[in-house]
Amino acid sequence: MTKVLRCKEVGVDCDFEAKGNSVEDIMRQAQKHAKEKHGMDTIPPELLEKVQKAIHDE
User: Fold this and answer.
1) How many domains does the chain divide into?
2) What pLDDT does residue 1 have?
């Protein structure tokens, strides 16, 4: 089943949506997006926890 993460679901005003087959795939996409679009070299621990909890089956 496809997994999905949306920036809006973690409280960020952004239309980004990552889809993939695993949590690891979603996290790679999220880290790349956070760096390129939000200027984050790393995802802060408190946001990382929200991101991991927000990944769900589509």
Assistant:
1) 1
2) 87
